[in-house]
Amino acid sequence: MKQRLMTPGPSPVPEETLLELAKPVTYHRSAQFRQLLGEVLEDLKYVYCTRNSIAVLTASGTGGMEAAVANCLPPGSKAIVGVAGKFGERWRNIAKAFGVEVISVAVPYGQAVQPEQIEQALKQHPDAAAVCATLSETSTGVRHDIRAFGEIITRTNALFLVDGISGLGVAECRTDDWHIDLCITGSQKALMLPPGLSFVSVSDKAWQRIDQNSPSRVFYFDLRKYRDSLKTNDTPFTPANTLLRALSVSLKKLRAEGIENVWARHARMAAACRAGVQALGLELFAAQPIDGLTVVKTPEGIDGVALVSKLEKQYGIRIAGGQDPLKGKIFRIAHMGYMDQFDVLAALAALEMVLLEMGYTLTPGSSVAAAQQVLVQQVRTAQMV
Ligand SMILES: *Cc1c(COP(=O)(O)O)cnc(C)c1O
């Protein structure tokens, strides 16, 4: 059976990238490696829409979040944290682990933190050293208006820390224009690579703060070490150079498509997927959805855990269920990274078959048809322009 990986991390990896991963391991203190890193960083800056320097960490995405907190927020400092799900909670928990006083701006799961709430919190806490936000709250499928947050935060002394891990390379995210001081992503979401790397861009405003802080509770994730090494396109510790070579292949693919086209492809897949599930009478969970995944409420009378497991066992389509309080209540179909419209149609077709088998009433083909309509309509519109 053909396997389709449609989880919101990890995501599928293109064949040419997999082939690169199969090549022999090379030594990293070499001119070739420095050239490779230089190229990869240029391509990453393109994806990030930034001129800031980017640290490459051998860690999953959470390592990048920890690096951001450890370097920017000394113990006893204050951070405003937007919490709309598991990953906002992760920001909060990391900050707490580093002795940071957390001001939570929380909304119920499925909702998005609003810019006015951030503005209000900054007014109440003018001494906040940072605001932490999540571009794509993967646990609920919510998109945050990072641009609006940035416009508010840039007028203050606070640094703007953004977890862009499942959003960067999916939806518009302009690090510099949107005043993001530290933007974090991981390799296994939209960048079309296996897990193992995390990237952190750092603005000038943030470097000034980091230099003043001289963080003492950090060693491996001391961003100043990465900045020093970057002067010669190098890394302070052994880099995951095999992954970096593979990344270079995936980023070339992104560059060839063009970042705006990449965002548009995700928007098309998301529109088709949303139309498909709604045509089945199912409800979307996210009030303000991101384009990298579609999060759906499990309908009444259907076992959500069984649904996810049947999709995988019977049809080879691996989607994700809900986590913790949302277990069984939602399911999450990812369409991020190396995916196209036919992956979405396949997932919808299989979803119909599983729902039918589980006794849910639907007309076979109805979600696929609705998704096709959306996709064709978009082709027509594009031709008219
Ligand atoms: C995947 C993800 C992370 C990081 O998780 P890791 O398991 O550490 O890679 C963080 N934030 C968001 C929004 C994510 O989607």
What does the model show?
- The structure is a single chain.
- The protein is an alpha/beta fold and 385 residues long.
- It folds into two domains: 15-256, 3-Layer(aba) Sandwich (Aspartate Aminotransferase, domain 2); 259-384, Alpha-Beta Complex (Aspartate Aminotransferase, domain 1).
- It is 44% helix and 15% strand.
- It has helices spanning 15-21, 31-48, 61-72, 86-97, 115-124, 146-153, 204-213, 223-230, 241-257, 259-279, 304-315, 341-357, 366-384; strands spanning 4-5, 53-58, 78-83, 101-106, 130-134, 136-137, 142-143, 159-163, 182-186, 197-202, 293-297, 317-318, 320-321, 330-334.
- Strands 2-10-9-8-5-3-4 form a seven-stranded mixed β-sheet, sandwiched between helices. Strands 11-14-13 form a three-stranded antiparallel β-sheet, with helices on one face.
- The longest helix is centred in the C-terminal third of the chain and has 21 residues, at 259-279.
- The structure holds pyridoxal-5'-phosphate.
- The site of pyridoxal-5'-phosphate has 13 residues, from helix 3.
- Pyridoxal-5'-phosphate (PLP) binds next to helix 3.
Mean pLDDT: 97
**Which structural class matches the secondary elements?**
alpha/beta
Number of strands: 14
| Annotated CATH architecture of the largest domain | 3-Layer(aba) Sandwich
Quickly name the level 1 CATH class of the largest domain.
Alpha Beta
Question: Terminal Cα separation, in Å?
Answer: 41 Å
